[in-house]
Specification:
Blueprint lengths: L15 E2 L18 E5 L2 H12 L5 E4 L2 H32 L3 H8 L23 H11 L5 H11 L1 H15 L8 E5 L14 H11 L3 E5 L5 E5 L3 E5 L5 H5 L3 E4 L8 H7 L3 E3 L14 E3 L1
Parallel strand pairs: 2-3, 4-5, 4-8, 8-9, 9-10
Antiparallel strand pairs: 1-2, 6-7
Length: 294
């Protein structure tokens, strides 16, 4: 596009790509200590862009082209999407077989090579992981190639909000209550712990599906003050305060985000029913008679 206006690459401008690599809420890694992949449209563009980034980050990894740099980003996000899809399917399989998913993951994670633990959750959220693999799959189809792993992972992950609603519905039914008319509190609507970002948050999909089934919904999130759902009519929600007394007034509490601000023991001790869907480590898993876990 620039050359169409009369400018020439390496003479009038340089052009390179460096993918975003951020993990919101992560206090260990930030821009300064995350290696920066850089790929230019030309070798000179790569060299100059790498030199510029080298002034502000600890390590720069140059690659042969902008296309390689872009595809590296897509691989990073697709890797997570596919592995999350796998462990979500394993979680549903283990539930069918009456096996503790979290104990299985903990046991497998003791292997010092060839295994990286991923944890099941209510679905994918954020700007990258739910979106970028779709682009890669679409680009592949344009070339006549079917990215079957990517598409299958998307199918599995997109079904998780329905599975969460199923868990809540089955648990309420065991207590003689339908979802319709039940007071349900969503704990955490951000897509990941300790951030305010709700982009593509699976909690929103869970809320929409519960609304469709007639639930009376509230939500609490220490990072999200207000929330609007454009589903079956525009619905405005305000962050409701919670304490032990408030928790007792709900028929069901659905935990979708692993915020550190929550006192999970207080939640379990006071809520009549807890659906815990956090993609957290085993140390954060709640165990009690009123807790249903993925």
């Amino acid at each position: 596009m620039l050359e169409e206006t009369g400018f020439r690459i390496d003479e009038d401008f340089l052009l390179a790509f460096s993918p975003e690599r951020v993990d919101p809420g992560n206090r260990q890694f930030d821009t300064s200590n995350i290696p920066k992949v850089v790929g230019g449209v030309t070798s000179l563009s790569t060299k100059v862009a790498a030199h510029a980034y080298g002034k502000i980050v600890g390590r720069v990894h140059p690659v042969s082209s902008a296309r390689v740099a872009e595809t590296a980003k897509l691989l990073e996000n697709t890797f997570r999407s596919v592995n999350i899809g796998l462990v979500n399917e394993i979680a549903r399989l283990c539930r069918t077989l009456d096996i503790d998913t979290w104990e299985v993951i903990e046991a497998a994670a003791t292997k010092p090579f060839g295994f990286m633990p991923f944890y099941p959750g209510p679905g994918l959220g954020g700007h990258c992981i739910p979106i970028d693999p779709h682009y890669l799959s679409w680009k592949a189809r344009l070339q006549g190639f079917e990215a079957r792993f990517i598409d299958l992972a998307e199918e599995v992950n997109s079904q998780m909000p329905d599975f969460v609603v199923q868990l809540a519905g089955d648990a309420l039914n065991d207590r003689g209550k339908p979802i319709k008319g039940s007071r349900i509190l969503m704990l955490g609507v951000a897509y990941k712990s300790d951030v305010s970002d709700i982009r593509e948050s699976p909690a929103l999909a869970v809320m929409e599906k519960l609304i469709k089934k007639g639930a009376v919904l509230d939500y609490n999130d220490p990072y999200v003050d207000t929330l609007t759902l454009d589903y079956m009519g525009r619905k405005e929600f305000k962050n409701v305060p919670i304490d032990a007394q408030a928790l007792r007034t709900y028929d069901c509490v659905v935990i979708t985000t692993n915020h550190k601000d929550y006192d999970y023991q207080e939640i379990v001790d006071n809520a009549p029913l807890v659906i815990d869907t956090r993609n957290a480590t085993r140390s954060a898993v709640l165990k009690d008679g009123n807790v249903v876990r993925l």
